[in-house]
Sequence to fold (432 residues):
Amino acid sequence: MRASTTTTFFFFFLLLLLYPAATVPAPPSSTKDTVLAQPPSSSSNSSTLDPEQLRALQFLHFPTTPDPCAKPSHDTATCDTATTFRHLLSLRLTNCSSNLRLSTAALSSLSTLTSLTFLDCHTPVVHFPTSLSNNLRYFTSVNSLQRLTGVFLSRFHNLTELYISGDPIKASGIHIITANMKSLNKITLSNTHLTGYLPKDWNPNLTHIDFSQNKLKGNIPTSLTHLENLKVLNFSSNNLNGILPDSFGNLVSLKNLSLSSNSLTGPIPGSISAIPGLVHMDLGSNQFNGVIPEFISEMKELKYLNLENNHFHGVMPFNASFIKRLDVFKINGNDDLCYNHSSISMEVKLGIAPCDKHGMPVLPPPAANERPSSVDDVGGGGGDGEGGGDDNVEKKNQVHVNRGPSKVVLGVAIGLSAVVFLIIFLVLLFKC
Ligand SMILES: *[C@@H]1O[C@H](CO)[C@@H](O)[C@H](O)[C@H]1NC(C)=O
Ligand SMILES: *[C@@H]1O[C@H](CO)[C@@H](O)[C@H](O)[C@H]1NC(C)=O
Ligand SMILES: *[C@@H]1O[C@H](CO)[C@@H](O)[C@H](O)[C@H]1NC(C)=O
Ligand SMILES: *[C@@H]1O[C@H](CO)[C@@H](O)[C@H](O)[C@H]1NC(C)=O
Ligand SMILES: *[C@@H]1O[C@H](CO)[C@@H](O)[C@H](O)[C@H]1NC(C)=O
Ligand SMILES: *[C@@H]1O[C@H](CO)[C@@H](O)[C@H](O)[C@H]1NC(C)=O
Ligand SMILES: *[C@@H]1O[C@H](CO)[C@@H](O)[C@H](O)[C@H]1NC(C)=O
Ligand SMILES: CC(=O)N[C@H]1CO[C@H](CO)[C@@H](O)[C@@H]1O
Fold:
């Protein structure tokens, strides 16, 4: 026993000693040396970036290769094509180290930038030099810059795209930010704690507006409907109220519309039928009312339709083939709305009641809805259900059959012992 354990321990120690000796020395000789040797020799001379800008990047803890211009290092930096020294055109700072401190001096050296992006780069914002503010065309901050203000952003006069998400902006209204941005095409200010009203003046060249997840109040101004280039409009999750302007259909380029989770009211304006390319319409969780207009089922491009949790009433105008064509269709949570069961079969789970012959929901809606769905479940899983039932019956039978023999054996044993006793008794009786 002891001899064998000591020998196994010995072998174990031998392995421990040999293993690192065999593996550890190998990597330094092969990989490390080449990693250390190659890049400096090949790229120390090829740093074509302006040395001042290189120093600024190092100051900002930007993870530079020796020449940020040479390698389009996963789109984190791009440079111009100047011959002597090149200059930065775009910069993307992601996952910045916690000791990053923006400085106005370092940013002054980076005034050639036209695009500046911060992603998951938490740092307090600093004053941007005027040369950089004027030069920027694209500015993005996602979960990054702290203590943003409307006044700070308003200095980016020449922006075409502004994208802020997840970073609170201190401003008394959006117009403070956008009033001087004459070239703006796309603006996203999402989840930025913005309050106040929607602006009255809009740049006619706007194609994207996303002010979702703020605390904006008041109604949607008619001036917005003059934006005939607008493709994407997202005001979801705000406190907007009032009715949609009758002229809403003037937004003829609109493809994606989300007004969900506000307090908007009134009917869906008929003019929306004039928007030919609408793909995505989300009006969910508002107080829209009236009858759902039939023209929606004629919208050829529509893929996403959400009308849930509103106050629509009457007969829903959609048939099964229209609903099947959509990727997403939501209509539940409209208590006075019902569907015509002669044009929609019970299989479609809509979350609204079928209509009676007067076009009113059959009451009570939840019970009337649950019945078809449970019927559907049974119908859909019919084969399986029956199979399962058969299995259960078989199993029960087996249990009975298994119990049967044991009882028989017991009975036979009792019977046999009784017979044996009887024989012994008779033999004894005979002898006596
Ligand atoms: C930052 O790092 C985290 C974890 O390392 C990663 O999940 C995230 O995608 C990174 N963010 C960016 C913008 O690269
Ligand atoms: C940028 O904006 C400034 C101030 O609004 C203006 O003077 C300048 O001409 C603009 N630059 C370009 C290239 O548009
Ligand atoms: C809108 O865009 C057109 C062409 O893209 C341009 O000529 C015009 O100046 C722009 N208007 C504004 C107000 O920026
Ligand atoms: C609107 O914004 C919300 C939240 O930011 C987002 O989930 C939704 O996809 C956006 N909808 C459209 C149509 O852009
Ligand atoms: C527009 O809506 C479609 C369909 O729901 C969706 O696939 C697409 O991502 C949306 N685009 C934008 C920019 O929100
Ligand atoms: C369903 O509605 C669409 C649009 O209103 C219509 O074109 C189509 O003929 C209808 N289909 C059936 C089966 O009624
Ligand atoms: C339901 O549809 C049938 C046939 O399409 C029609 O005759 C009937 O009037 C409709 N019922 C209601 C309440 O709209
Ligand atoms: C080939 C080449 O350009 N070599 C240069 C590398 O950089 C050093 C100093 O930075 C110069 O002295 C070499 O001439």
